[in-house]
From TrEMBL:
Gene3D superfamilies: alpha/beta hydrolase. The keyword Signal applies. The keyword Signal applies. SUPFAM superfamilies: alpha/beta-Hydrolases. The lineage of its organism: Bacteria, Pseudomonadati, Acidobacteriota, Terriglobia, Terriglobales. InterPro entries: AB_hydrolase_fold (IPR029058), Esterase-like (IPR000801), Mycobacterial_A85_antigen (IPR050583). This is Putative esterase.
Amino acid sequence: MKTLLAALLLATSAFAQKVEVTLPSTAQHGHLILVFSKDEKSEPRMQMDEQYQSAQGFGVDVGLDGGASASKITVDAKTFGYPLRSMAEIPAGDYFVQGVFNVYEQFHLGNGKTVWLAPDKGEGQKWNRKPGNPYNKPVKVHFDPKSNAAIKLTLDAVMPEIKGTKDDPEVIAANPATAKWLKYMRFKSEKLSTFWGRDTYLGAWVLLPDGFEEHPQSKYPLVVWQDHFSESMKPAFTAAPPAAGASARGASGYRFFQDWTTGRLPHVIMLYVQNQNPYYDDSYVVDSANVGPYGSAINDELIPAVEAQYRGIGAGWARATAGGSTGGWEALATQVFYPENYNGAYGACPDPVDFHAYQNIDLYNDTNAFVRKGDFGSVPIAADRKPDGSILANTADEFAFEQVLGTKGRSTEQWMIWQAVFSPQGADGYPAPVLDPITGAIDKSVVQYWHDHYDLAAILKRDWPTLGPKLEGKLHLAVGDGDTYFLNNAVHLLQTQLDATRNPHSDATFQYGPGMPHCYTGGPAEYTMQQNGANWPQRLLPMMTEHMIKTAPAGADVKSWVY
């Protein structure tokens, strides 16, 4: 496949139209992303997507890993693209064209390796809105793949800083309507700083219980809420009433604020951690050869500091964790890797918990992640779907999408953060590829590393004699059986495995939503998925604290925070 693609690009490059992009003098090292779109509904840079409706993109490394920097970059038929793989395949017509240069920096890692990566600038690893990234305003052009005339672009604009804007956590924390309860901490992690070879910080939103100031002798349980990067607290916490006609989810932040501040919910501390990093908007909260010791940093450094400052009880029986999607995987992994530090994990629609179902790929039995072949036919492996089964994306296209956004695992998107978290570090300092992003060939030696270190089902099976007794009453999962990313398949595999356990027999709970897509959180069947999702924290907190009180050791403080 690689050879065929190379031959096609070579054959078409002689007559395909080119785009010449002039970079500013500050853009010496990074990755150029050039985007074509057919309409003006939003800027082209905002229309790139992993699903088939995506705008057309091309990616070029500049000045990285021994490569030369240049002030002008040519994008032509040889440049790898997505959804179309070559510029020569773009039909003649009028398009809006925009370039973005994702600026990289050198990281001198603590182990002596040096890598080029895009540091997060407070935006949560979004290349198309990262402060300091050069870009151009969209330009309407007529493109003809057979023309010899070059289209010329100049990246003469720069994305603005976040500091002092409505997205700045310090500005959000200063809101007088919520400041009594909502605090923000910027925490320097010594473990992460050592790993990355530079000062590295975690952001921590701390939501204090109602009555915290009025009960200075009280100490409180801690609930760690896991989620993707957000500038503000997750779950949403706002004193601003929703606009008329807002959806249940849109109004959830105000409802949560009302319930939290009027004594209708248990008195706990809620913690949401911003742990974006050079590979993604989230670290997956485990120790990783490539992303760093985020599990240790959060559990051994940050959480003790938060509990010390805000009167946390500071014991495993009085902690719980919850989250959905990435946060669902993190909640389960946190409970499994720190079994005595937490007393309950509540995960919804978790990322793959069994690599037999890595979304729709079986890493152990498939030889290729993009296609399954029979004796006389083949079928592409689907990646995204609607609940009715309609396919929205295949794995080959999703990996091509990420390859356009960044080579060597630097896309800052979903497949590559899994690779960064789960893989060993390669000799070049970057994550060892679990599969070839162009051909789909799976590297079984890397898969074995994944199995041993991060396949949660495999770890639970291997270590059940010691883990099982420590996880009684603690594992709770929910997922829609029409999950957009096929994540329900891995959850079913995990349940089958846990149902077969003995000594002890697992009491993990599972709830499935028939026909429900991604982000299903379980809940009473008489309410819609959206209604149950909107009040998920309110449903979980009483369950969490009831279990804490029931299982607290003799003499534990189960009263000072109940008022």
